[in-house]
Amino acid sequence: MQDKALKTPIQTRYNQRALKDRMARYFVASGGISVIIAILLIFFYLLYVVIPMFGSAEITEGATYATPGEGKTIHLGLEEQGTIGVRFTDHGHVIFFNTDSGSIVRDESLDLPANISSISSNLDLVVLGLENGSALAVQYKFDLSYPDDVRTLTPRLEFPLGQDLLVLDESSQALTQIVIQLNEDGAGLAATTSDKRLVSARYTREESFISEEITTELTSNSELALENTIRSIALTPTLDHLYASTDKTLTDFSLDENGFDGEKTKYYFKHEITQLKLLLGGSSLMVGLANGEVQQWMSVRKDNGRELTFIRNFHANEHKNAQPVTSIATEQQRKGFAVADSKGDITLYYSTSQRTLANINTAKSSIENMAWSARAQNLLVSDNKNQLHLYKVHNEYPEVSWDVLWGKIWYEGYDEADYIWQSSASTNEFEPKFSLMPLAFGTIKAAFYAMIFAIPIAILGAIFTAQFMAPRMRQTVKPAIEIMEALPTVILGFLAGLWLAPYVETHLAGIFALLLILPAGFIFCAWLWRFVPNKSLLEGWEAMILIPVVLFLIWLSMILSSPIETLFFDGDLRMHLSNEWGLNYDQRNALVVGLIMGFAVIPTIFSIAEDALFSVPQHLVRGSLALGATRWQTMTSVVLPAASPGIFSAIMMGFGRAVGETMIVLMATGNTPLMDMSIFQGMRTLAANLAVEVPEAEVFSTHYRVLFLAALILFLFTFVFNTLAEIIRHRLRQRYSGL
């Protein structure tokens, strides 16, 4: 009975311990599963945001009806949301109508003294060329109001250059082609006449503060005789170039403040030119050809000045049944455009990504006019059968493609194709540039230079601490280095940007001298160590003795910085690097990032590597020493192979820390998305770019989704890299498990 009474408390304690063990096991397992689920949820949320960006564009016909009103349609327009359309007729009428039904909202006559011979538009600005050589600029507007909480649009016409006709050709010849560009100061017009002449004029405009009456004054005009009939013309917004096409020739006429300056350049095409159209911003000229092809040309800086250059083409084919381009309509807020041909095919393209987005043909007849709404959600089309077609377009992210994200793209304003990240600018005509290559390159570059600095110091320090340092000193050094890991990176970045970067700039020669002076000083100290008596008493405390030596050598290198620059580099090493070697020096560069981020990564690598080295069984070390091996032979042949899985894990953990670092690279790199491996240039990393731009990005915009794609890439990169590292570590452990 007494034994049974004794067994009962023991059995009770055993059961309680078993219960606690099971509960702990379940808690640990549930915690691990929760971590995996959280990671998967992050992954799938990133995919949820990113995937819509790669969806296809869609175009569907919303309505078809006979052209409202009388007369032939010579121009079409749409209000911002596509609910009201406007058509200009050859009889001088401006007809506003509902796009869903075709019912007329307003019909206004311009009461022109002569017939219309040509027409052109620039967004909502329309210029009419008349048979008597005069022109009229008309702008259609829509006043928005909400009576009874109902969105109501009231169309009206404005005359930005006044209601009086502008005499463009004093010979009173019919204007067969006409273009206009309007800015705050005035306007520029150019036209071709029926007797084969080019005429141009510049006007200044003033608006009365009292009567709001607009007065227009001619500042310059000129004309130029032509040999051939011009089919189409286009005038740049800066009024410095006029492009004109004949059958197979494109001519670039240079203009100055007084008109034509006599310079012109001709470009020859294999097929006839049918259409000319400037993209948003006026930097790119779209050339439509008789074989259905559309080419993009841009003004590019060459050795002998700027020159119109072919960039890319769309819908190139050599089929016998290819239909000529009859109309090109460019989007009002992006670099997309629609192309129609004589067969009725309408194709949507995006210039920069060179994507063919969508295609439709419901008219089955030649398309004569097209117009986009401001948001590019509606496309209004008229054909040669007096029919109007309204198309609904879903095309949210046309500017994204594989080439845009990872390839070299030739953007407007650049002299060649390049990898460029520039998500915003101050102009409305700006085109976002979303190449992820500079960000990925900057991420690898920052981690590379940080690891070059951190790995030797951390690994060699871990070797000495684990195998050679005195135990009492190790008990102080190891916790002190591990505490360094708790330093906030924002503080390190602050110090790097405001103190270290300027200091390195003024002591650049000393920094490089330190790379020579420090090893030489160590070798000299090792030579002197031979003459120290009773060295056994100091065994394991060598690092303590070297601390003042290291500080002295660093101080000496910084003191010698200015004399070295004066003696070898004419007093300025940075200028010497630029003039002699072509290396530009930015104050916040990879050198600064390598130093400060290496300092932040050292504790991670050191701690894990030191634990791995210190955990090598001592019987292996004693056995090696007993067989006659030296301490260093034992280290290289026994300890390092046995600890190699842990050392490899330490390096991978440090690399992962460097790749994901945000605040240091944000504050110490200059955030310049450049692809330059120079240690004297800055960079921008994926993590820093996310920290800077995500708070400013419009939710679910292309910019927003591309940033989430960058986050997904960083996530996948870390996952794949860590997985490979774990596989390699596992194989190393299997290989050296027999030691």
Folded structure, characterized:
- With 739 residues, the protein is of the alpha+beta class.
- The chain has a domain at 436-735: MetI-like (MetI-like fold, Orthogonal Bundle).
- The protein contains 15 helices and 31 strands.
- It starts with a helix and ends with a helix.
- The model has no long low-confidence stretch (mean pLDDT 89).
What is the CATH superfamily classification of the domain at 436-735?
MetI-like
CATH-scheme architecture of the domain at 436-735: Orthogonal Bundle
Q: Spans with pLDDT under 50 lasting ≥5 residues? A: none
- Tally of DSSP β-strands: 31
What is the overall number of helices?
15
Query: How widely separated are the two ends?
Result: 53 Å
What is the CATH fold-level name of the domain at 436-735?
A: MetI-like fold
Q: How much of the polypeptide forms β-strand, as a percent range? A: 25-35%
From the alpha carbons, calculate the radius of gyration and give it in angstroms.
Answer: 37 Å
Just give the CATH class of the domain at 436-735: Mainly Alpha
Shape: elongated
DSSP helix fraction = 25-40%
Structure class: alpha+beta
Biggest sheet architecture:
5 strands, antiparallel
Average residue pLDDT: 89
